[in-house]
Amino acid sequence: MTKSLQDTTTLHNGVKMPWFGLGVFKVQDGAEAVESVKAAIKHGYRSIDTAAIYQNEEGVGQGIKASGVPREELFITSKLWNADQGYDSALEAFETSLKKLDLDYLDLYLIHWPGPDKNKFIESWKALEKLYKDGKVRAIGVSNFKIHHLEALMSQTEIKPMVNQVEYHPHLGQLELLDFCRKQEIQLEAWSPLKQGQLLDEPTLTAIGEKYGKSAAQVILRWDLQTGVVTIPKSVKEHRIVQNSDIFDFELSAEDMAEIAALNKEERVGADPDEFTYGFE
Questions:
Q1: Does the record bear Plastid in its keywords (predicted)?
Q2: How many domains does the chain have?
Q3: Domain encompassing residue 167
Q4: For 232, which of 9, 221, 224, 255 is 20 to 30 Å away at the CA?
């Protein structure tokens, strides 16, 4: 059982990644990003997940610096945006992200979306392999990749992704993808674990929560961890950041897990990766 905010999963290259972190999608750059990151780190978070397209890397970097926690104790992720895919442009985009974050290295760098051209993401991946070999990033991975994207990538490159960050919540169980990633030792990570707030009043989840004195959100985040999925809920409110992480003092039963699994509709709140072309035009 995952027992604390500092507990980690070991990626297939031996790097330890926290099971739980703060996502900063739609968090405004400047004070909001700085204060969110500071609050999360103050309350024990050690993983922060941003992306070039979020346009808040500078604020995230300032929050990291202001936290006073040594850099080596933190796990910082950013992502390569679609318009920057390709070998040379990916290398440049990485350096831009690093500069904005004001860091010497990243712990994890992801290709944000596969896009319609697999040759493009394969070239991008080769750039990430170089960054990894050069020691500029401790682990590399992808985001929003389906099984066929992963198979295409692995068939033409040298290093297997260490992480695949995808939309994952009780309405989108992605069971085949989860099983595939487990077998390939690719750590699945959930974005939008609360389905952008749409699951907070779900009767099954609220009923389970009542048994443990927990909210539906806390039940979902606990479910993520018990399905072996890293999770990074977003919040800009300090009390909510604390609440989200208050999930290490209970464990869902097998019956609870089955009830939550039965909610699966394979229903997305975000785009289908096979159809998402924004930024690739």
A1: no
A2: 1
A3: 10-197+228-234
A4: 255
